[in-house]
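Subject: Interface between my chains keeps coming out wrong

I've been trying for a while to get a sensible model of this assembly. When I model each chain on its own everything looks fine, but I need the whole thing in one frame so I can look at the contacts. Pasting all components below, labels as-is. Any help appreciated, I'm running out of ideas.
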Amino acid sequence: MPPSSTQSTRDWEDDTTRLSTGYADAFEAAWFLTRSPLWRAVRHPNWGPYVLGIVLAVLIVAMVVLGASTDSHFIYTDF
Amino acid sequence: MAAPASRRRRTPWWHAYATALAILVVLDLALRAWVPHPLRLPEQFSAIYLERYVASLRSVHAPVIVMGDSSLWGYKTPASDSAPAVLARLLPAANFVNLSYEGGSPVNSEVLLRYLLQAGVRPRLVVFNVNQKEFNPSDSAFKRLRPSLQVAAEQELTVRDRAELDLQNRSAVNDRLSDLVARLWALYGYRTDLREALFGTDDMATLLTHVAGTLSGYTFRQAQAEAPTAERFLGTYDLTPLDSSNISYQRLVALAALLERAHVPAIGILTPTNHTLLHDYIDNSVYVANVATAARMLRSKGVTTLNLDAAIPAGDFIDNDHLTSEGNRRFAELLRPTIEEALR
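Reply #2:
Try treating it as a single job with all components included. I did that and got this:
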C-alpha cells in the first residue's frame, strides 16, 4: 500500500476549486519507483550501477531538452 | 569472516556516475561532430548553431549568400517552397545559402555580413532584401539584433553598435554562466535547436499548447480573428521621409558600403509588397519617394537593385509582404535573370 495521499487546501482553493494532487508528488512517485522493475534493475549487484548511470544520463538529457525555452527567441511583435 | 560471494562481486556505486558521464561525453562528441546543412535557417536557432553553420561555409566554394527577413526566409511556406530554395533548383550550379530569418532587417543584415566576412566566408554574390516596414522605429527589428546573432557576433560589435542598438543585456552573472556552459557542453548549447528539431517549435510546452489549441478550435478561431485586414497594418509603415537620421536606413547605407569595400557583388531587392491590401497606407508620394531613396542609394554604392515593390499580384500574398508558395515561385522567377547575369 502506498502512503496516503496528502491533500492540502491552498490559499487560492476553496470547496469547488480544490484540486487533488493524487500521487503526483515527488515523495509518492519515489515510493512507487521502489516497487517498480526499474528499482530491481538498479539494485542488481552487478549491473545495477550501470542502469542507474543510464537513468541519470536520460534524466539530465530530458531536463535540457524538455525544459522551457526562454532564450534565443526573437520578439515578433509585428508579424 | 569472509564476505559472501555476492557481496564481493557487487559493482562499485561510482560506476553509475561514470556511466552517466560517459554517455553524456559520447553524446557531446556526436553533437560537436554534427555540422548543420539546412535548406534555410530554422525558425529558432542558437548562437552555437549559427557559428557552426557559418564556420562550415568557409569550405563552400563561391557561395551565393541570401540575407534578409521573413519574406526571403519563406514565412508560412515549406522550406523547399521559399524563393531561395526555388532559385537553388533553377540554378543548380550556384551554391545558394539562405541566411535570412524571421525578424531580419538592415541592422541584422549589416552585422551578419560583418560577421561572415570576419569568419572568412567569401561570397561570390550577396542577395538581400530591403523591406520598407523595417525603416519604421516601431518595427521589432528596427534596431534590434536577433539574440543568437548578437551572441555569435559579439566580438564584431563596435562601440557604435553598443550605443545605437537595442542589445540584450547579457552581463548578468547567470547570462555569462549560461553562455559559458553552452560553450563547454554542446547538448546545452544546442538546446534551442534540439527542441526546434524535436517539437517543431520553441519547446514541448509550446507544442502542447498548439495541440490543445487545435483540438479545442482555439487556433482556428484565432486565425479567423487575425485575418490580414488592412486595418491590421495601420502603423506598420512609417511615412516619414527616409534620411540618415533613421538608424535602420543608416545600417542599409553601411551594408552597401561594406559590400563595396569588400568588393562583393550584390543584389538588393526592394521587397514585394501587397499594394492591394495596403493601398490606403502606402500608395502615396512619400512611400514611393522612400522606395526611390533606398534604390538610389544602393545603386550609388554599386549594388544591383531590383525594385519588386509592386511586382507581385495580391493573390500571391499571405498578408502584407509574405508570399504563398506560388508567390515565392514567381518571386524566384523574377530574381533569376538578374542573379544569372551577376554570376556570369
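Reply #3:
Confirming on my end. The two ends of chain B are 89 Å apart (CA to CA).
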